[in-house]
Design brief:
The protein is of the alpha+beta class and 208 residues long. Helix content is 19%, strand content 31%. It is built from four helices and ten strands; from the N terminus they run ββαββαββββαββα. 32% of the residues are buried.
């Protein structure tokens, strides 16, 4: 599988993760993950380092994901995440029409505070395209928050029943679209943006 490289330097590799691929194995020990594919590719090139994911995306979420080249680099990037110095933005299709042009969801998740900002990109017949910016890093935060406000992400099957909504999709319509951070080694400001993967573009074309 050819994985699209969006940014690369001596310390980090940032790629566009396809939907349907795990970042790392679950307890079932799946042999084929994004991490295993990338490390096999660099092994074939006789690389002297291993790639380590600095965060995760759900199996059915596409978009930008950061891999560190070696453990020292990983530790630096993990610390940036811990300090919330890496800003992320996602594009999501959510069920129904969100009337407010922008807002912030401040609902706790499993007893921990959690906040998500969002703004409406476009409204369709029975769904809304939003840009969502998690201000905290709770597991499945965006999926839970949009379900909590009555607008689960299209394709959601863990936190909402698909049968309760007329709009269906083959996968979760969530895409990690933007990343911004100060490079921990060079100090350079890195700002990346990537458009929707083809399947989500096709969904918009087919669902006006």
């Amino acid at each position: 599988m050819a994985i699209e490289i969006v940014y690369e330097d001596d310390w980090v590799l940032i790629v566009n993760k396809p939907a349907g691929l795990l970042t790392i194995p679950t307890p079932k020990n799946e042999p084929r993950t994004l991490t295993s594919i990338l490390n096999q590719e660099i092994k074939d090139k006789n690389s002297t380092y291993n790639l380590y994911p600095c965060h995760r995306l759900d199996r059915n979420t596409s978009g930008l994901i950061i891999y560190a080249k070696g453990k020292a680099s990983r530790d630096k990037f993990v610390e940036l995440f811990r300090q919330r110095k890496i800003r992320k933005a996602y594009e999501a299709f959510v069920q129904g029409i969100i009337s407010k042009s922008e807002g912030q969801i401040n609902n706790s998740i499993e007893g921990s505070s959690a906040s998500t900002k969002y703004k409406v990109v476009m409204r369709k017949l029975n769904y809304t395209v939003v840009e969502a910016m998690p201000l905290t890093g709770r597991t499945n935060q965006l999926r839970i928050h949009f379900k909590q406000i009555g607008h689960p992400i299209v394709g959601e099957d863990k936190y909402a029943f698909r049968k309760d909504f007329p709009l269906r999709a083959k996968r979760l319509c969530l895409h990690a679209a933007k990343l911004q951070f100060a490079h921990p080694f060079t100090g350079k400001n890195i700002s990346l943006a990537i458009g929707l993967n083809p399947d989500m573009q096709e969904f918009i074309k087919n669902h006006d």
